[in-house]
Specification:
Number of strands: 6
Mean pLDDT: 86
Strand order of the largest sheet: 1-6-5-4
Radius of gyration: 11 Å
Oligomer: single chain
Bound molecules: zinc ion
Number of domains: 1
Strand content: 35-45%
Structural class: mainly beta
Length: 68
């Protein structure tokens, strides 16, 4: 898988994300719920299972998958 593709999908602890401690995979800026553009509600049991995030600094878009 190309590097650019792998960076578009990261895994994070949900609590860490909610606390704005997940770094953007492109520039390292810490992101959280305020920068979510779309939540993915389709996968049970604990929706949202993942969220699409747009980095406020470098404007890259990536998907955060919640590991718990
Ligand atoms: Zn960024």
């Amino acid at each position: 898988m190309p590097l650019t593709d792998s960076r578009r999908r990261i895994d994070a602890d949900r609590a860490v994300f909610l606390d704005y401690r997940v770094p953007c995979p492109f520039c390292g800026t810490l992101v959280g719920p305020r920068f979510v553009t779309r939540e993915h509600l389709d996968v049970p049991p604990n929706p949202p299972y993942a969220a699409t995030v747009r980095c406020p600094k470098c404007h890259e878009i990536f998907e955060v998958r919640f590991s718990r």
